[in-house]
Structures are given as C-alpha cells and as structure tokens.
Amino acid sequence: MRIPDHAVINETVAATRALKKPWARGLVNAVLRKIAADDNAPERSVELPEWLQAAIEVTFPEQADALTAATTERAPMSLRVNVRRTTPEAYRSRLTGAGIAFETGYLPEHLVLDRPVPARDLPGHAQGLVSIQDAGAQLLTRLLPEGLDPRARILDACAAPGGKLFQLAERLPDAELVGVERSPERLTTLRQEAERLGHGAVQLVQGDATGRDWPGSEQSFDLILLDAPCSGTGTLRRHPDIKILRRPEDLDSYHALQLSLLTNLWPLVKPGGTLIYCTCSLLTRENDEVIDAFLETPHAEGQPPAPAGNLDLPTGVPTRHGWQLLPLPAGTDPPNLSVDGFYFARMTRREKAR
Ligand SMILES: C[S@@+](CC[C@H](N)C(=O)[O-])C[C@H]1O[C@@H](n2cnc3c(N)ncnc32)[C@H](O)[C@@H]1O
Fold first, then answer.
1. Which is the closest atom of ligand 1 to the Cα of 229?
2. Which helix (H) or strand (E) holds 292?
3. Is 230 a catalytic residue?
4. Which residue, 4, 107, 158, 297, has most beta carbons within 10 Å?
5. How far is the centre of ligand 1, averaged over its atoms, from the C-alpha of 181 (Å)?
6. pLDDT digit string, tens, across residues 128-167
7. CB of 336 within 8 A of CB of 112?
8. Domains along the chain with CATH numbers
9. Taking the complete model, does pTM exceed 0.85, yes or no?
C-alpha cells in the first residue's frame, strides 16, 4: 500500500494481458481509477471486524486499544544480514554507502531501516547478502535449546518462504537442515531463496506435514520448528486485507490443522529433543488452546511433552504455555523491537516415561 496509485493502476491493467484477459483492461482501469479518486475509499484504516476486536479484547484486555491502534500503522522494515556471506559490519557500511539510514537491532545481524525501500534497492540483495525478515520472527534464535548440538538434525515442517529456516542455516552452519513445504508453488520460491542465499546444503522437500509421506520422515530430529499456517492476525499492519477476508469460523479450521500437524510431528522429535510451535496469530484458539489440546492427546511411547515455563524474550508477554509478541504502536517499543504478533511455545520430549 506504499505504491503510488498511478503505478498500481498501470501494473494491474498490464496484468490483464499477462493473464490473457485483454477484455478486462477497460473494466480494471475504470474501477481502479474510481477508487483512487474516492477520498472515502477504505485504506489501511479499515476497522477490525467485531469478532476479531472482541477476541483481542478478551485475550489482551490491557493492550487491546494499543493493538487495535497499531493495526493501521505501517510496519518497520527489518533486515537479517546473511552472516554466511558477509559480516554485519561490512553490510552496515554498504547500506551507509547506498544512503539507506538504519538502526542496529538486538541481534548483531538484525537491522531496522528508517524508511522501507524496495528489495531490489538493498545493496547485495540479489547476491544473497541480506533478507527481509520481521524483528519478531528473528527472535526464534533466542528460543533455541541450550546446549543444542551444532551438528543437530533440524526440521522446519512448514518452511516456505524460508525466513526462519535460512536464519537457522546462517546461525547453525554445521546443522543438518530439512525443510518441508506442502505447496509446490511455495516450494519453488523456497528453492529460489536457498539459491539466492547460498543455502544449497539445506534439504528441501515437498510434503504434507500432517502425514509422513515425505523424504526425511523416517529419521527423528533434535529440533523441530512448526511455524504453522494460521489466521495471520499478528500481521495486520502488513496485511490489512485479513481484516476483511478472515472469518471467525476459520479459527476452528486452523486450530484443527495446527493440532494435526503438532500431533503428527511430535513422534519425530528425538527423546530429549525439542519442538518449537509458533504462529503469527494473536488468538488463543490458535496458540495456547492448541497446546492445551495437544497436551491432552495420548502420546506414543509414554514420552509426553514438557512445555518450557521459562521463555523470556526482550519484548512481549508470557502466556499459559508460551510467549506472545505484541505488535504495538510506534514509540511503545524501541524501533528495533517493533514486532509482528508472534506466539512461541517450546516443548521438550522427555527422555523416559513419567
Ligand atoms: C506460516 S508459513 C511458514 C513461514 C516460514 N516458516 C518462514 O519463516 O518463512 C506456513 C507454511 O506452511 C505451509 N503449509 C500449510 N499446510 C502444510 C502442511 N500440511 N504441510 C506442510 N506445509 C504446510 C504453507 O504453504 C506455508 O508456506
């Protein structure tokens, strides 16, 4: 929504040719011009639907007003320097040389731009020196279990477009990484990202992580990341269309899918290993309630999960089973900690039956 109206209109009209729908050219042009000329047309200030407003108020009574206000703001643009290809210092000099102002983040490789720029204008983007990744997503590295073997076997079960998987590849260069993705189109994007960033050693496979019919599932993992499909309600600053498109009944479908993924993947965690469940949702139905339902499920081999009670991140709030990052209005947090609304829960597989 930062692209000028005339560019949006031209590009969208041009897309009718690419889509082989030349008859739609005049219609698309007329509709978009009318919207652009209408001062009352909805923009990012679209109100939250009642059901979502109510769910946020119930879950975060203290922060609900701030969370609602933040949904109309523009999210900051946050970068992750690819430490396998350059150093944070060298990349900061490249940005300064290109006249792009930034602040340093809470991790050495994390930078926050003063103003967003197109990816193609980032120095070395095509050469894989840097990725665009939200500050909250980057906090995943704070959740890695202490004493994780640098050569650990790690699965990202819902991997595309690869932000967290390639962050792990950069942090843990000797780890054996497997990324599973159900959508063939998104797998293609994932492969392109692996090539851009130089992460050819990461094994990328197409598969449905609610089942075991994918290469790699015959062995267990020291760490599994389940970054589950969700309502995206923690990312309303970036995706205001969610306010219009999401329906309350979607939450039950997501809950069922999240629980099915979690239950299927759990037996693939080595005894003593860890599973990190995360979503970009603010809603307890997709977060703590999924963990509640999972803890009630009988588990194979008498090795039930032990949720970590001691998650501690530089921003956000603890929940019953995990930690919730909150997207608050600018100025509430230091800019380098302005985050999308992520939920993280970490569970360890016990070595022996209780
Ligand atoms: C929240 S996104 C993952 C984001 C990614 N981890 C990152 O950090 O860039 C969820 C992904 O899971 C994929 N997905 C959905 N259902 C799946 C399933 N049953 N098995 C594997 N992948 C699935 C979606 O296509 C989507 O790419």
1. 10
2. helix 288-296
3. no
4. 158
5. 6
6. 999 999 999 999 999 999 899 999 999 999 999 999 999 9
7. yes
8. 5-37 (no CATH), 78-133 (3.30.70.1170), 139-349 (3.40.50.150)
9. yes
